[in-house]
């Protein structure tokens, strides 16, 4: 029963007194408008766990390499991903580890996260940066990309099984994306991603000097384990 003209009028009235802002150039920026560089924010907590997040610049929602960022995330993160295998299975450094792309129209980022023992924070940071360097130096394999693409395509298909998810997809394509034509074959851009695309993404964005960090730092407790599992 919604009248589109009336809805547009109400929406326009809610923002009428707000002057338009300056156009943002793609990329991470601080409040002063300076491109983001190295920096750290720390919060102390009385808990036997430290959480470390690293945010790197990344593709925006409209960038050509945004699907390569999604493929990178599927290769790096998740229970079977590179970071989980290297930082949790082989080194016993992590309670949890993740890699996530963050994409909006005028800003984008690549986010990594690791939860570890407080006494192993420096080790976890170094190990994370080493694994991210492997993406720049060694790239990814065809098998890794194929597995990641299959996972992402499956997610798209499962997501369309609910009306709420489909409505959110329509809204995202309409507001943040290039239009509803994105919905015709959403899996096609993933299938077009190559190992070289992922390596190019890592080489461009996953540079240690370009990251910012957020840390919730826990306190080492007597008898706490130094090897997360």
Outline of the structure:
This protein has eight helices and five strands, in the order αββααββαααααβ. By secondary structure, the protein is α+β, with helices and mostly antiparallel strands.
Secondary structure: elements and pairs:
Elements: H1 4-15, E1 39-44, E2 50-57, H2 66-76, H3 82-90, E3 96-103, E4 108-116, H4 121-137, H5 142-159, H6 163-175, H7 188-191, H8 195-205, E5 212-217
Parallel strand pairs: 1-5
Antiparallel strand pairs: 2-4, 2-5, 3-4
Helix pairs in contact: 2-5, 2-8, 3-4, 4-8
Walk me through the structure.
This protein has 229 residues and is an alpha+beta fold. It contains 8 helices and 5 strands; from the N terminus they run αββααββαααααβ. The chain has helices spanning 4-15, 66-76, 82-90, 121-137, 142-159, 163-175, 188-191, 195-205, and strands at residues 39-44, 50-57, 96-103, 108-116, 212-217. The protein has a 5-stranded mixed sheet with strand order 1-5-2-4-3, with helices on one face. α2 crosses α5, α2 packs across α8 (195-205) and α4 crosses α8 (195-205). The chain is globular and about 60 Å long. The model is unreliable at 29-35 and 221-226 (pLDDT under 50).
Major sheet details: 5 strands, mixed
Q: Quick one: overall form?
A: globular
What is the element string, with H for helices and E for strands?
HEEHHEEHHHHHE
What Rg, in angstroms, do the CA atoms define?
20 Å
Tell how many strands the DSSP assignment holds.
Answer: 5
Instruction: List unreliable stretches of 5+ residues.
Output: 29-35, 221-226
Number of alpha- plus pi-helical segments: 8
Strand content: 15-25%
Percent helix, as a range, is 40-55%
Biggest sheet: strands side by side, in what order? 1-5-2-4-3
Distance between the termini: 54 Å
Overall residue-averaged pLDDT value? 85
Structural class assignment: alpha+beta
